[in-house]
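#random but structural
TW: two for the price of one
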Amino acid sequence: MRLLINKSEKELVCSLRQGDMKAFDELYYRYLPKLLGFAYRYLSDDMEAEETVQVIFIKIWEKRRSLNENQNFKSYLFQSVKNQLLNKLRNQKKNCTLEEIPERYFVSSEDVFEKLSYKELENTATALINNLPKTQQKVFILSKIEGLTHDEIAAQLCLSKRTVEHHIYLATKFLKGELTQRASLYGPLILVLIAG
């Protein structure tokens, strides 16, 4: 039975400072459910949350004489639990080993090489496109990158459809030639751009 349930927090802390175990019990039962819920939100593990809160209450009992009854005890408790949780999480991070990391987070060296090679190829292609004559460059970008039809490009740039087709042919021929020379560097990735 909780005999001190009607006592204020300040009165309970004063009694706790004097070593009153009943005051300690009342504070414990008053704040335990909320502190457990708070700790569980961080840890998602009932046992871990309970252990964290128990550690704080042990420390409260051990340091009871230094408690300040004018300080908001509830805030002090929550801050203490938060600090304990942060320490616990920090220590868990330090103790994490490579073997504990799930395989789904691994990236194969082939994937990394392929992404780097593709990025390098993309940069090379962009540089080559930028070296095309201005009209040819505009036509190629509108066709291959923005997906416009030959008729739409002709209307937008005030060119004949035949001229648009000729510019696309010349740009594609130039790019294929340049990228094919670099095929030994990029391997099968060269096909991605040339196939378009």
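TW: number two ↓
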Amino acid sequence: MLDPLEAENLPGELDPALRDEVAHTTARAVVHTARATEDPEVVARLVRLVEREGLDVVAELWSDAAPATLPGALWRLYALREWVRRDPRTIGLRYRLGVDVAPVHEVVAGVPRPPTPEDLRVLADTVLSGVYAGDLAVALERAAAFGRILATGAAYDADARETADPESATRMTRGAADLTRTAEELEHAAALWRAGSLD
């Protein structure tokens, strides 16, 4: 039998408290360092972080962080950007379906109408650039508005498919609920940033 000290020193899953500390430390370092330098090349490299390091690396850092934290908000932004990069066709369809029902969110999101896949990629990059070189709360609110439009579009898409493909419609409805929750989390993170308590 191993004694408790030996057991603790065995390699394995990172201690949750240490993992949380690493998430917060890296998020603060990335955001505050980029904001302090005001170097456009640094900002551009951070926006492309997932492309350089891979989504798995970013997920390992921040995906378990609570939504009302800086690493949790960063994870949601990078995950949304990656979805836009990987599936612009679906994003464009959902955006077009949802935008007429959510005109206020359209203004906040700031996507031209009708959006091309490149417009959507530019929006995702602009939002992330805002995290590092602009008003972080505004960047979070823009991403939230974009998410709400996509959620509305997904719900409409699900309704249209209900008869022909009920399983797919159910998945889309769940996805719409997930996007709405993510939008709410981003809005809450924006309010916390403005209050000086997003850590």
